[in-house]
Specification:
With 340 residues, the chain is α/β, with parallel strands linked by helices. It is built from 10 helices and 11 strands. It folds into 2 domains: 2-223, Type I PLP-dependent aspartate aminotransferase-like (Major domain) (Aspartate Aminotransferase, domain 2, 3-Layer(aba) Sandwich); 225-335, Aspartate Aminotransferase, domain 1 (Alpha-Beta Complex), CATH 3.90.1150.10. It is 37% helix and 16% strand. It has a 7-stranded mixed β-sheet, sandwiched between helices. A 4-stranded antiparallel β-sheet has the order 8-9-11-10, with helices on one face. Helix 1 packs parallel to helix 6 (207-223), helix 2 (26-38) runs parallel beside helix 3 and helix 8 crosses helix 10 (316-331).
């Protein structure tokens, strides 16, 4: 567990390592942070988020809005990005918190959290960043970023197992603990320890998962995160260029900063395309709303899309096979070919 904590801290530039907390996943982390921050805050305080965000952000905040705990503003985006000036304009005297994604899980667009964080901190607004899509894919140095808390998941870019995740918090006193129980430390006390990381860690950890997470981070460090990022950018660029050759294909983000390609084929439901890719070509793609309903409402009217996700282990040959398969399906879209 110590090896995993130190490994993730290194790759995120999160210092000290004791301020890095392990949880079940990114959703779990976001709930702990949001609930812990709002504990003791005045009811009706103002919170900001964006239409790019995942339901792991939108649902907790909407629940608190329904309970009249907060007043929520959801900021729009344009071409995959939230305008920092729009954030500045949305801040009011009672704005206490902003929670937003670092990288969109649908569009692959990476937000300028350095500029945004600077604006928020200049106005005394706490900043929680959902880094589920960016950790392990792009260089991140939290020691230089104006971020109060940064959330990660283990099973995506960090190459770990499902059921692992966590967060880094710069000032632990800024978040009230909301879970209490066994820690294996100070067991005579009936009060939960307030030291780090025990302040936010209760119960038995997923030790096999954390061992896998440590191994995944070791692989990333040995390979080089810049090498991983550059390979992904090249493959994504080639795939998008290929898909744009077919007029029936709509690609929703031209230059994603993450290895994600969202698209639809005119005349076909996204679920049907996903089924054909899997059954005919052995290609697995995610279809639907991707737990980002406000984003899809903005880009495709809420019908959802197909999302290709690449990893370090995706080969150039596989990218070519995927491009050819998608173009073949698009070429026959009007004939309504049934899946094999």
């Amino acid at each position: 567990m110590l090896l995993a904590r130190e490994a993730v801290s290194r790759i995120l530039g999160a210092d000290p390592p004791e301020h890095l907390v392990f949880t079940q996943n990114a959703t779990d982390s976001l709930n702990i942070l949001i609930q812990g921050f709002l504990t003791g805050k005045e009811h009706g305080c103002h919170v900001l988020t964006t239409a790019l965000d995942h339901n792991s952000v939108l649902r907790p905040l909407t629940e608190y809005e329904q309970q009249h705990r907060i007043r929520l503003t959801v900021l729009p985006f344009s071409k995959g990005y939230v305008d920092p000036d729009a954030i500045a304009s949305a801040i009011g005297p009672d704005t206490r918190l902003m929670v937003m994604t670092h990288g969109s899980n649908v569009l692959g667009s990476v937000q300028d959290i350095r500029t945004i964080g600077g604006i928020l901190h200049d106005n005394g607004v706490y900043f929680i960043v959902d880094g589920a899509q960016t950790a392990g894919h792009i260089p991140i140095d939290l020691s230089t970023l104006p971020v109060d808390a940064y959330v990660f998941t283990g099973h995506k870019g960090l190459l770990g197992l499902q059921g692992t995740g966590g967060f880094y918090v710069r000032d632990p006193e800024s978040i009230a603990p909301v879970r209490f129980g066994g820690t294996g430390t100070d067991s005579f006390s009936l009060l939960h320890p307030r030291g780090m990381p025990e302040r936010f860690e209760a119960g038995t950890h997923n030790y096999p998962g954390l061992a896998g997470l440590a191994a995944g981070v070791k692989f990333i460090e040995e390979t080089g995160i810049a090498t991983i990022e550059n390979k992904a950018a090249r493959q994504v660029s080639c795939l998008i260029r290929e898909l744009r050759e077919e007029p029936n294909i709509t690609v929703y983000q031209d230059n994603p900063g993450l290895p994600i390609i969202p698209f639809n084929i005119k005349g076909l439901q996204n679920d049907d395309v996903g089924f054909m890719l899997a059954r005919r070509y052995g290609i697995i793609a995610r279809t639907g709303l991707h737990c980002a309903p406000l984003l899809h409402r903005a880009i495709d009217g809420g019908m959802g899309c197909i999302r290709l996700s690449l990893s370090w282990f995706t080969t150039d040959q596989e990218c070519g096979i995927a491009a050819d398969a998608i173009k073949e399906i698009a070429n026959h879209a009007d004939s309504q070919v049934s899946p094999a």
